[in-house]
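Phosphoribosyltransferase
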Amino acid sequence: MEAEPEREVLSYEQFGTAVDQIARQVADSGFRPDVVLGIARGGLGLAMGLGYALGVKNLSTVNVEFYTGVDERLDMPVMLPPTPAAVDLAGLNVLIADDVADTGRTIELVRDFFAGHVAETRVAVVYEKPTTIVRPDYAWRTTDAWIDFPWSSTPALA
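Predicted structure tokens:
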């Protein structure tokens, strides 16, 4: 019988602390985003929190499917419609928000989709994993463990 993988358990209270500390990192770096782009679903809470903390009212989302279960994923991440038009973000400073930079492939897909259209992109995540191919500019914690987020650690009600 296989051992249960190590888990990092994040509470809603810790998530609030993470948002506050990530927002402070962004502010202290001098980066002033014009828009916060949340990667749905996991990055939406962080995007909303950063929007409020940084005084950014322009929030946008992109939906990317990659994970299908605990440590199970598609071969490649896929952007799902509706996809925001890159031209709508032309010339803007974009802060991409996601819950975790695990493989980094989801963030890479989103960042590359907007490359050449926006002035600058930076990436903020709650967790960074050492194996990620995209190093986020801002992260709350680094872990090797599977993360139980408070919004996705229990089964759906319906």
